[in-house]
Write a structure and sequence with these properties.
Layout lengths: L3 H10 L9 H37 L1
């Protein structure tokens, strides 16, 4: 699994000529989107677990 925070920091610290100028902003945007989607997925997983616990309590 890719550590998005580490990747973003590595890219920010690189000199501008290390990447093609067009690729760097696109790569940063993609990494930020992956980070946001992971957060959203984690949030949905916790909501699902909460609903499952609530249903279990209701059935007792």
């Amino acid at each position: 699994m890719v550590n998005v925070k580490v990747m973003l920091n590595l890219i920010k610290d690189e000199p501008e000529d290390a990447y093609i100028p067009i690729v760097k902003p696109e790569l940063m945007a993609l990494l930020k989107e992956v980070k946001m989607l992971r957060y959203k997925n984690s949030k949905l997983g916790s909501q699902k677990a909460k609903l499952k616990r609530d249903r279990k309590r209701e059935n007792k």
